[in-house]
Design a protein that fits this description.
- Belongs to the thiolase-like superfamily. Beta-ketoacyl-ACP synthases family.
- With 424 residues, the chain is α/β, with parallel strands linked by helices.
- The protein has two domains: 5-253, Thiolase/Chalcone synthase (Peroxisomal Thiolase, Chain A, domain 1); 265-420, Thiolase/Chalcone synthase (Peroxisomal Thiolase, Chain A, domain 1, 3-Layer(aba) Sandwich), CATH 3.40.47.
- Helices cover 34% and strands 19% of the residues.
- The protein has 16 helices and 15 strands.
- It has helices at 20-28, 38-42, 57-60, 66-69, 75-90, 116-127, 138-142, 146-155, 170-183, 200-208, 248-253, 283-296, 316-328, 342-345, 352-366, 380-383, and strands at 5-14, 17-18, 34-36, 49-51, 105-111, 161-162, 189-196, 239-247, 260-269, 306-308, 337-339, 368-369, 396-397, 402-409, 413-420.
- Strands 1, 2, 5, 6, 7, 8, 9, 10, 11, 14 and 15 form an eleven-stranded mixed beta sheet that branches. The protein has a two-stranded antiparallel ribbon with strand order 3-4.
- Helix 5 (75-90) runs parallel beside helix 8 (146-155), helix 9 crosses helix 15 (352-366) and helix 12 (283-296) packs across helix 13 (316-328).
Length: 424
């Protein structure tokens, strides 16, 4: 018998809010976290704006020891440790410094580029013949699994502790990997999520590709415009999201709060064939991924109440909507409600999937659909496919029974999960 899997804890460090309660309020209020960065202007970036969580020194000291903070330059690790630790505590789980490992709990926490600022410092020191000044944390800050290693040590997890990396799909893929481990009885609970560094050395390549908006440097909060006729490229962001997935029996036995149930999902790739490429999804692969996710979850297309899309505020938004209409065989007024978080946070790269998964669960648990920021004028190709009422521009109070969350990543890789409201 396959185990049922539920979400019992969450944490988040997003550009528009840090902390679960703050984030829940921010997305209902449609608060933007996109800001102007003088550093990007000085470096002659075309796009001089981005999304970056605001972390105070006081907050840092609540999660890291003075020794850990010495030389800590990886923003991704900072965001990941904050969100991961918060999720653990939110689930009602204890953090102990001694005793045996928690053999029933594991971690799958992904990233894209981790520790780039530490890498830069290391290169400078090594080239100057000052290798001994690197410090004892340079390795853990720059290895891809540094974030899961940090969290594994803090939480004492003794089950699988690993890191995945699948570009923009990373966080959603991590959730599915953790789900499958619990479903197959290999763990009772898994901390899943993803993080991304911020700054010019992460965002510079995208600026060079000319896929970021350059005309909103003086109006940063208006720059990210998913689904809009004025969409002109994605705004780079950073941060982390984390969720505790748990065997339903375990959650019930310890009296845990249950946010929602994870029914299933699917991951696949378009192989960069046909219309698929390094930067564009193969449309057949996307529709196959959606269809398989529904089949694996035993859900009919008519049962989907809402979709939290990938929707990055590029020309691909209308293509994504077309793929959803084809996979669900639903159009116009029959189409589910759909929204994108990226109008408020920008595109948080490898952290996007996990932050958006947290937002998706919050909508189910608290019975609302957040509005699409900066979508006053819907793209005409999208309006031909679905009714504009399906794209709310402000918060809607609504009970959601089943929600589909999708991430379609760089490299033509896809992930879709299906979440369901758990009866109170």
């Amino acid at each position: 018998m396959k185990k049922r899997v539920v979400v019992t804890g969450m944490g988040v460090a997003a550009p528009n809010a840090v902390g679960l309660d703050n984030f829940n309020s921010a997305i209902q209020e449609m608060k933007s976290g996109i800001r102007f960065f003088p550093e990007l202007r000085d470096l002659k970036f075309s796009c001089q704006i981005g999304g970056k969580p605001e972390i105070s020194e006081e907050l840092l000291q609540q999660y890291f020891t003075p020794l850990q903070l010495r030389g800590l330059k990886s923003s991704g690790i900072v965001y990941g440790v904050i969100s991961g630790t918060d999720a653990w505590k939110d689930a009602g789980l204890e953090i102990t410094e001694n005793g045996s490992p928690d053999w029933d709990s594991g971690i799958i926490f992904g990233t894209g580029i981790l520790g780039v600022d530490k890498f830069r410092e290391a290169i400078q020191l090594i080239d100057a013949g000052k290798t001994r000044r690197l410090g004892s944390t340079s390795v853990v800050q720059t290895m891809a699994s540094g974030i899961s290693a940090y969290l594994g040590g803090i939480l004492g997890c003794g089950n699988q502790v690993t890191t995945n990396s699948s570009a923009c799909t990373t966080g959603t893929e991590a959730l599915l990997m953790g789900f499958e481990r619990i479903q197959n009885g290999k763990a009772k609970r898994m901390l899943v999520g993803s993080c991304s560094d911020h700054g010019p050395y992460v965002w510079g390549g995208f600026d060079a590709m000319r896929i970021l908006p350059s005309k909103y440097n003086e109006e940063p909060t208006k720059a990210s415009r998913p689904l809009s006729n004025q969409a002109s490229g994605f705004v780079p962001g950073s941060g982390a999201g984390a969720l505790i997935l748990e065997d339903l029996d375990s959650a019930i036995a310890r009296g845990a709060r249950i946010y929602c149930e994870v029914l299933g999902g699917e991951v696949n790739s378009g192989g960069q064939r046909g219309e698929g490429s390094m930067t564009a999804a193969n449309n057949e692969a996307v529709t196959r991924c959606i269809t398989a996710a529904l089949k694996n979850s035993n859900v009919e297309t008519s049962e989907i109440d809402a979709i939290n899309g990938h929707l990055t505020a590029t020309s691909r938004d209308s293509v994504e909507i077309e793929n959803w209409t084809r996979a669900l065989n639903r159009k116009a007024e029959d189409f589910p409600y759909i929204n994108s978080l990226k109008g408020m946070t920008g595109h948080c790269l490898s952290a996007s999937g996990s932050i958006e998964c947290v937002a998706s669960v919050l909508q189910i648990y608290n019975e609302y659909i957040f509005g699409n920021l900066n979508c006053e004028e819907i793209h005409p190709e999208i309006k031909e496919l679905i009714h504009q009422d399906r794209i709310p521009t402000e918060k809607i109070t609504k009970k959601i029974n089943i929600l589909a969350k999708a991430s379609f990543g760089f490299g033509d890789i896809n992930a879709v999960i299906i979440l369901k409201k758990y009866p109170a």
